[in-house]
Structures
1.
Amino acid sequence: MTELDPRLRRLQAQAREWAAEMRPYALEVDADPDAVTRVAHLPALARVAALQIPPEFNPEPLVLGDQTYYLMSASERVVFFEEGACADLGMMLGSPGGPMSGVVVDALGSQEQKEWFFGRLLARPTWTFFALSEPEHGSDAVNMATTLTAPSDPDGPARLNGVKRYVGNAGRAEFGVVFARTGPGPLGFAAALVDASTPGFATTPVRTIGVRGAGLGEITLNDVELAPDRVLGAHLRPSRRGMAAWLRTFNLLRPAVAVMGVGVARAAYEYVLAERSSLRATERLRLERMERAIATTRRMLRAAAAAVDHDPSAGHFASAAKATSARLAERVTLAALDFFGPGARLEHPLLDKLVRDAGSVEYMEGTSNIQRLGVFSGLLRGAFPPLQATLLPTES
Ligand SMILES: Cc1cc2nc3c(=O)[nH]c(=O)nc-3n(C[C@H](O)[C@H](O)[C@H](O)COP(=O)(O)OP(=O)(O)OC[C@H]3O[C@@H](n4cnc5c(N)ncnc54)[C@H](O)[C@@H]3O)c2cc1C
């Protein structure tokens, strides 16, 4: 499914309307990331905070005509987030709610943990964090150094120690999910719900060139005490709550992250259309090529979203789409500069911001090299039959 059905078209129209209200604040948030909290009342941010909550916990879904939306499927998210990222990627990433941590809680949490997490999100617009990356372990999260140590006294608290870096909304979040090691081996991982007010929890901002609204930060965990009921998935078998389970969850998230590259590329393309009223023939051709590249990547992403909605282990399509989308965002934003001459970055601050934002897509949810490894492992598993068939020698 790559063309939108009427239901998703309706969602797209609503998202586009909300996104238009975000756009005027893009440069303000770029200059001052804290401005995100001042614009959190905008429907695109406030409403999204109360979405991405499973139906059993969400009494206030988005209702458009006779259709109800929870923004829980990858197919809905790619439609919605393209519009948000096209308006402003930093603001979209800086919106309240549980866009990433909520997916983990939904997949691994017990009934009580879900009530705790989603109940707090519904009470009022609240930011959350998803703390996986570390200063020395970004791509190789498997070797993370953060530890969750079991209590010596069975009734006592567990303890978290370590440093997480490049965590979105770190300084403004009230709670979130921290990923840690509980011991060696493939089952020695745990994800836990952590309250930012717990003693030993501290954050410092990380300055970034782009997506400043995302409020990236470092989280230090110094003997942070954790009640046993805050460890996600304790009710599940170890093989259902460890790294393999996380990877399935990340597959669900990947199309929505990847589509942000399409949103940024589209913003640059639309900027050229709006600001250059007359174009030479060669420029028109270049612009048409940009438009085609955006449309092709969008189709790829929608197909990848449908694939993970159908089977959450089918993340290799989304990996291919994520790598394509990161490259698209960089190429299209840089190509857009060429339409405005040598002073483009100074004279067109919005375009300059888009170029800086585009660079971040490469790093979110795994770099292109890591996505290529995902595609390759999919190939080895025979997950791309038509392509594989063309590579194999035919019998004659
Ligand atoms: C806007 C933004 C938001 C983010 N939000 C979050 C968040 O909310 N939570 C969170 O936990 N993290 C977040 N991150 C961090 C992100 O997940 C990491 O930046 C990413 O995983 C890469 O890790 P790294 O920066 O340490 O780079 P590294 O892993 O050090 O990679 C550096 C380079 O080495 C290459 N490389 C690494 N390993 C291999 C390999 N095995 N084979 C080939 N090449 C390799 C990479 O492709 C890359 O080019 C965010 C990042 C950005 C930019």
2.
Amino acid sequence: MDPRERLEADRAETQARLAALLEDHAGVVAASRDSNADDEHDPEGQTIAFERSQTAALAHQARRHLHEVDAALARVADGSYGRCEVCGEPVPPGRLDARPTARTCIAHA
Ligand SMILES: [Zn+2]
């Protein structure tokens, strides 16, 4: 597959995931407000706090991935995509298949 197409698809998918997570997050925050839970003493409040931090961590991950995808798309645009940042050698196609945002060859990973 064309790297740009693959990255665009990854980008769309990540954005959808992020939107779903933020929606979840909004729902959890609203639920915790409704239950008027005390996070420290109410067991249900603790569950909500956990879900909230999990969701926040996943959203953070999705955002970071989005940055990587954007950086990879910029490299496609300037022609440096698929070359190792360290040695300038081509990154093996198998590695790019597994990790389309890879910036380095296996030796420099
Ligand atoms: Zn290298």
3.
Amino acid sequence: MAWNPEQYTLFSDHRLRPALDLLAQVPINPPSVIYDLGCGTGNVTSIISQHWNDAVVVGIDSSEEMLAKARGDHPSIEWKQGDISNFNPTSKGNLIFSNAALHWLDDHETLFPMLLSNLRPGGVLAVQMPNNFNAPSHQNIYELAQTPKWIDKLGGLVRPAPVHNINWYFDLLSPLARRINIWETTYFQVLEGKNAVLEWTRSTALRPFLQTLDEKSVDTFEAEYAERLLEAYPQRRDGSTLFPFSRLFIVVQTDED
Ligand SMILES: C[S@@+](CC[C@H](N)C(=O)[O-])C[C@H]1O[C@@H](n2cnc3c(N)ncnc32)[C@H](O)[C@@H]1O
């Protein structure tokens, strides 16, 4: 799908915080080859690169729009266009980092072991993924898309929740790992402005649905969705909106040899 870097960076503080929480748990120092998969506009990649400034850092993303911003903002970092599901670098990494990207890919049973196989001995895979597919922000998109009015155009875009539970990842990854650190956090994000949750999902979960509609249908779909959102996430007396957001974190270190 096409990404919109401007819309995505509207909530950059909220989006950055889990990336920093993940980075704080990476147990190796200093890695020499680092890949940031699904690097987007590269703001997290740039923090990684400042943190380990002797390392070779490569940001990989499938979206040319996001990479164009990354290249413009951080010209000294290496950026590559590519699909994470085909990740097969010539030089294996000490650290593979991925913030808020792997939930866009299906089949994690194959994906995660494939990523681990691209690490050097003792290397680390560090991943953060939203785990809010059952939240009203997402369920209301899926429910609306499956109503008779929208199902022909949008029904096919509803996919099963791509992210599994903590036990599932632990059972998959612990036989392949020396150490595994896995946790979940719900951030109670305070958003400002009217239709704040709609503004948020416009750049992420809602995006594939809007992209298949013409302009008039976009307005209608958004209005129906916004009405449901206001019920699920009412604006507080001070004008803010509390938007609880669950995220799953996984840090896996492989054996030394
Ligand atoms: C929500 S953004 C996160 C960007 C960045 N990691 C951050 O923390 O700001 C998700 C990014 O994953 C990228 N992405 C999604 N599926 C991908 C795939 N199969 N291969 C490569 N990149 C992908 C998107 O293009 C987008 O830039």
4.
Amino acid sequence: MRLGIDIGGTKTHAVVVDGDVVVASDEAPSGRGPEAVVAVAADLGRRVLASVPHPAGSPVVERVGVCVPGLVDPSTGIVRQAVNLGVEELELGGAMQRALGLDVTVTGDVKAAALWVHRTTPAIPGTRLAYLNLGTGLAAALIGPDGVVGGLRGAAGEIGHIPVADSPPCRCGQVGCLEALASGTALHRIWGRSGPEAGCPFAAALDGDALAQEAVDSLCAGTARAIQILVLAGGATDVVIGGGLTALGDPLRDGISGALQRSAAATPLLSSLRLHERFTLRESTVPLAALGAALAAGQAVDQRRFVDIRASVDHDDPMAGDPDDRAVPHQVG
Ligand SMILES: [Zn+2]
């Protein structure tokens, strides 16, 4: 069994999975600042582990995966620039390992969700999947033959911070980023309303709310642009969209499809790609990132075992050196 913990900007989710089956889950409001982030995640992890029935004395969970927003280096477990958590830099892997007394693997949250989506999407030869997360922010992950693409310091897939317009300012310091046009934050900024009591922006737009119309137009056009980037620059053939905004359902799907078809009408290049047929919404009440974090923990341990086997084969080679000095390959991140 594996424990997966998703430390989100608002909530921290924890799941215990046995194979692909969730046997326990719980959530808590996330801490803010390095110490509180770790304390909340560790307490929640212990609580959800305690809720799993198991025979006395047997270790119920051997592997722990933690995922978090920001730039994550999975080889060191260090996270940087997790702005929504008030974290500039944190050695999250080491801190969680000390708190739980278990081996911990750290992954970026969108990359973790992508791992789970990849695991649960039927493989079709010749296709290449990208996962696009529409939540508080906008980010993506590309899935290659060896797993989720990490890139420079974990930055691959951070397409929300590609500037595509002259305004507005983005929280990252640039101007006109895709995320500033298409994300939960952008939706509520343009509409001027937020929270559960605000209702559905698509319904408000239909009722004649001009700001709601502007907000959903920006969301759909920006998401269409993100899909175009993932296909043209990332090599994706299929894009799965997840994240909190997928709760908007069919109006969001129709709006993105309409924006893609309007772009395609102006150019044979795009119309030949039929991008409006290449994306799906993955609406889910299951915390995809927590499940993916648990999955990443298992993969990392398997990779280390692979290195150990190679080290024993090279035992008589005087040039082999200390296996502990070798770089440990990570499939994730
Ligand atoms: Zn930005």
